[in-house]
Structure formats: C-alpha cells, structure tokens
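User: Could you walk me through two proteins back to back? I'd like the raw sequence and the structure tokens for each, with a short line separating them so I can tell where one ends and the next begins.

Assistant: Of course. Protein one, sequence then structure:
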Amino acid sequence: GDADALSKVAHILKSSSANVGAKALADCYRQLEHLARAHRIADACEHLPTVRDEHSRAVSQMRALLLEMT
C-alpha cells in the first residue's frame, strides 16, 4: 500500500542524497523511511515540511557549488 511505496521511494532518495553528499537530507529521508516502514503515515506527513526544507537547502548548496565550478 501507501506505506510500502513511501518506504521504497524514501529509501531510494536517502541513497541518492547520501551519494551526492547531502547528509542532512539523507537523514531526513532515513526518518521518513523509518516512519513508512512502521506504517506511521500521519507522522510521515508531519515530517514532510522538514524534508522539503532540507531538500531546498541541499539544492541551493549544489547550485552554489556548480556556479563555483563554472
């Protein structure tokens, strides 16, 4: 169901974030994955604003790094 799908997606995003060095974002996705595996969908929904904020921060940092390289 929804919890299984969320868990899988969070796992993929956790790994991808870790691969690009976005540790804080990977930690957010780790927590989201944990909540989904526990079928705590309401808690996962409450965690989404934190995930979104950290995602925005990570994207901004990556953009800044790319600008430095050009």
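----
Protein two, same layout:
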Amino acid sequence: ALDELITLKQAAELSGLSYSHLRLLARKGTIWAKKLGHNWFTTAQAVNEYLARDRRPGPKPKDQSDYRKD
C-alpha cells in the first residue's frame, strides 16, 4: 500500500546501507522498489528481506560443525 512506501534515503537510514547502493539494488531489481517521478521508493519489509539474505559475494564458507583438528 502507498502508506508503507519509504524513500531510499529513509531505507538507507533504516538499513545502514548507502543510498547509492540501495538505488543500484532497486535498478537491478534486487530489492522491490518503485520509481515515482525522479524518486525511488521501497518498503521497510523489502529492505528487511534483503538484509536477511546472505548477500556476500564469492564462495560460501563450508560448514564448520564436522571439522576436527587432530
């Protein structure tokens, strides 16, 4: 709903990510966002869902639970 929309500036403050990074994610479709006029809008839920994903590039760490030092 429109009352849930926040600006990317607000999303940056909420998430700790930069405005320019959020704008890139919005343009790439990585997070849900809508451009209205010149401004991008998203929702707190969309930002939180993005933050909950493991978004680090590169190989994922192996599970350490079965690792033993002899």
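The radius of gyration is 16 Å.

Let me know if you want the two compared in more detail.
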